[in-house]
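Hi V.,

Quick status before I head out on leave. The structure for the redesign project is tokenized and pasted below; the design run finished overnight.
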């Protein structure tokens, strides 16, 4: 069944939802406003440490990455900005790049400093025992803040690969002090009105300790830094069994949830398509976001995936769709009935309020929203029919040399 035929089921679904008390027009308006940022590095060749499989037509330059992102935005209507990684996307004219993006109908989003690929960062960047490495890391942060101003970005998205591999390798307490110092110095460099998002990850590339291992550490750092610092939740960066929705609820309530890096993992940070492994978990995350109302208004929704064996553009479109599906389902939650059941101690009644929304097939709703936005109701079918992938494969060829150079993001 194509999403075209989903359109035929729209009226029945709208009737069902209205009978449930859902304001269908309000839900559609929210879905039209959803915005998901795609990562420049997701369009280039990348993969695992074992092998990077070159994808025919994978983007080699930032201009090609933006062209692919524009194609994704044209088809989905909800992916208007692109995150960049420095130096992967370095160019000598940032103002021209900003204009190039605007001409494609895009905006440059988060600027991601890269402090993990140079020899000097072997023992860490901001937390390195080597003062020269720390100074270089800070200089790179300054460069990224300048780039933010030139491209019109208001997010510095910080992830550090810093950590140690063996007990005793370095002083954990000293590393914490260096982290505080380095982040505070970075914070001072932020362009006015911008935010610094502090991402965490419990392991990899370091395997004994990581300097920013969890949301609590990121949160503690943000509290010390000031109001422009907020936590970034990468959905692939948690130990098994971690309740990400609860982390989201806590950070939203404290006003410190800055944004997301969406992806999925089965075992460890694998960069699989968001929602592909545990769609219910993604739904519970969106339920917290919808339930938080205005408190979630500043949250930045970004995808952070590097596909290895799957077609890159199609994978990105699928990722955007999966975020739309999770959001649409969360918008259908009857929060009033949920609160009543919770207060009445009706454990399963409350749970079933969530299930009622989760089990609703929202594909007709999304197909209708797309049609009303002047888009094809099925972005994957539209992409496959567009010939874009074949065209760039011919024009660009196998793009190995233009990859990010980073095996797994
Ligand atoms: C690290 O695994 C990470 O999630 C960070 O967000 C990086 O910026 C990104 O992947 C790409 O390397
Ligand atoms: Mn990430």
């Amino acid at each position: 069944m194509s999403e075209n035929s989903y359109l035929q089921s729209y009226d029945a679904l709208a009737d069902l939802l209205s009978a449930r008390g859902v304001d269908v027009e309000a839900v559609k308006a929210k879905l039209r406003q959803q915005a998901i940022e795609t990562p420049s590095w997701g369009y280039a060749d990348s993969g695992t440490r074992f092998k990077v499989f070159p994808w025919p037509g994978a983007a080699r330059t930032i201009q090609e990455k933006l062209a692919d992102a524009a194609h994704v935005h044209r088809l989905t209507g909800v992916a208007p900005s692109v995150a960049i990684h420095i130096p992967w996307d370095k160019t000598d004219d940032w103002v021209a790049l900003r204009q190039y993006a605007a001409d494609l109908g895009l905006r440059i989003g988060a600027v991601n400093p890269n402090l993990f690929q140079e020899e000097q960062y072997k023992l860490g960047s901001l937390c390195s025992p080597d003062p020269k490495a720390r100074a270089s890391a800070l200089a790179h942060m300054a460069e990224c803040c300048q780039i933010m101003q030139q491209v019109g970005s208001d997010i510095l998205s910080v992830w550090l690969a810093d950590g140690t591999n063996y007990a005793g390798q370095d002083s954990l307490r000293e590393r914490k002090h260096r982290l505080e110092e380095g982040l505070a110095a970075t914070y001072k460099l932020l362009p006015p009105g911008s935010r610094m998002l502090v991402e965490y990850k419990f392991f990899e590339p370091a395997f004994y300790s990581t300097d920013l291992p969890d949301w609590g550490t990121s949160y503690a750092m943000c509290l010390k830094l000031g109001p422009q610092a907020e936590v970034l939740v990468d959905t692939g960066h948690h130990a098994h069994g971690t309740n990400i929705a609860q982390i989201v609820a806590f950070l939203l309530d404290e006003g410190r949830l800055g944004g997301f890096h969406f992806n999925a993992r089965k075992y460890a940070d694998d960069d699989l398509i968001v929602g592909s492994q545990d769609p219910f978990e993604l739904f519970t995350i969106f339920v917290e976001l919808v339930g938080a109302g205005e408190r979630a208004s500043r949250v930045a929704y970004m995808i952070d995936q590097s596909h290895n064996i799957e077609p890159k553009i199609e994978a990105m479109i699928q990722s955007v769709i999966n975020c739309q599906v999770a959001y649409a389902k969360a918008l259908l939650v009857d929060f009033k009935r949920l609160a009543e059941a919770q207060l009445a101690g009706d454990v399963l009644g409350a749970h079933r309020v969530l299930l009622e929304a989760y089990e609703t097939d929202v594909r007709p709703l999304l197909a209708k929203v797309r049609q009303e936005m002047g888009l094809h109701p099925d972005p994957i079918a539209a992409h496959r029919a567009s010939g874009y992938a074949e065209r760039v494969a011919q024009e660009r060829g196998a793009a190995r040399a233009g990859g990010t150079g980073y095996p797994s993001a």
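Above is the designed sequence. The pocket of manganese (II) ion (ligand 2) is lined by residues 159, 199, 234, 261, 304 (CB under 6 Å).

G. will cover questions while I'm gone.

Best,
W.
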